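User: Fold this, then the next.

Assistant: Folding the first:
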Amino acid sequence: MEVRLGAFGRLKDFPQMERSGFAYGELDAAELSELSEEEFQRVKERLGNSPLRTEIFGRALPWDQPIFGGVDFDWEEFCRFAEKSCRRMKELGARKWILGNGKARSLPEGREQYAREQFCRLLDVMCDTAEKNGIAVLLEPLGPRYTNFIHTIGQAAELCQSLRKDNLFVMCDLRHMVDSGDDFRNIIRCRDYLRHVHIDNPLLYPRRIYPSLSDGYDYSGYFQALKEIDYRGTLTVEAEVPEDFAGSFREMEEFLAYYQVPLGTGEKG
């Protein structure tokens, strides 16, 4: 097992992130899409000259309410949004686009089957658009406090298998696995689909803080499952933005060393 450690943040946090020691920043896709073209070009120039990579973008959708509710979804608008997002992410070197968006993907009562079909269509559009830009789509299982649809890695992997998209994979997030009661052994069972990992202290809902050796949670089960599949990839601390990214990175180095998780290139094929 070997990981590349990344930090979560917004564009305004980038200057501090790049001085911290983290290997990459996991930024907000919806924020990126909302920029004017002039604003984006400035961001592109700034990030393009940085040693900190911007290869992963979360919050794929800009909505915080169920999108498959009582009104018809505007597919033309969404296709334009997806094209714009993927073009911009590609120009910043993105390789992974995370679909979490618990509220947006929630199924409305009484229209569950229709909403499921619409969600699969949305994934289809996302994958086709992302593939043209060399980007993988990662479906994130979320706990029941966040959504009523796709809670476990197995459910996410089953959907990936049914859609048969070459660039559709899953990720795991410790907080959501704990919230869903998802067995860590499912990381092993779904290893062929796993492409990204999130971590934070999973016990402090709704707060999200960096994990530590003194926070009362035993992270060994999570890491043991990842070690069993010899996971070599990206690991993002998805938590509230720290006051001191450099200090948080040093603490994460100590934390990962304790659990014998080496930092390195973190890439396997």
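Now the next one, as you asked:
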Amino acid sequence: MIYSQIHRYLFRSFFTLFAMSLSIFSLFIQTLDLVFNLFRYLDASAPLVQVLLVQLYYLPTSLSFAFPISILFTISQTVSNFSMRNELIIISASGISMFQFVIPLIAMIGLMCAGFFAINDMVVIEATRKKNELQRKLLNQDVSQDNSNVVVINEEGNVLYYASFFDKESATMQNGFVLKLKDNFEFDERINFSSAIWEQDTWFFERVNRYSFDKESKRFLRTYHASHTDETIKTSPAKFERIADSLSELRFRDAYSYIQLLREQELPYHQLLYDLYARVPFAFSSLVISLITFIIGASIMHSSFLFSLLLAIIIAIVYYSLDLVGSVLVSREVLLPFFGAAMPMIVTVLFTLIIFFVVRRQ
């Protein structure tokens, strides 16, 4: 009975402070975003209602950014409050170990982190996309899905495309070439074209120079065609689009498919794959860092409000500094994307275990 009463008191204290912290931090982030873009809105004469709608779309993102620091601050301040009121001593004297006291809260934070990852993938990313679209519209910033200097390889790996420019709306390519290989990947022919258009599930080329190799004369032969089509050249125009400058507007599954496309085309993808993998440890970073905060906070009695805030900020800075180091190592291909993304979590878990055993020996 005493366990349930103490845990109800713990949950009530935690969630009351967490709701306040989340509201304050998210409001602060919202204000920063509005202030940063205020003069741009004024210069573009953006309607107030539309600006408020942008901020409404930004609300899930601001809550997402505020979630980790709110968890850290709340757990730190909760421990501080219990320590300053000597409630940890009373709980210990009642026969409840520190592990028994905190494990339900830690489990709840773990569930919150899992929910945070799911909501971030299903809600926050879509809201971010709508916010960016509306903001670009208000600021008269056009974003095109056209692409330049496009290089695409088909799924079989025997046809390579290059175009100096691809237009999504008209599904056309300008000034490029197609390199075809045989089944044994020997040279087959090269098709230089002035323009190409996608019709009837194939590409139609105009003003074409075809180059092939004649084995008998051992010379390259060139033939000119005003127009040309080849049923083996049928890679979809969707492969030529510029999908995104970053993954921030793509859900996890869509972002992974995009990275797989880059892999197939042998284009750089390591940094993007790191950014994608980093979403998982970022979502659960609050759980691990909260463990450290709780262990340190519980070991230092009568810690103040400012100490709790400082502790949460320091731990967050250390964690995200490790995240930055991992990003740099991945960009230089020193670490694989998975290990680079997991490095902050691994180091933090090891640090947590060391602190835990040190505190237990005291």
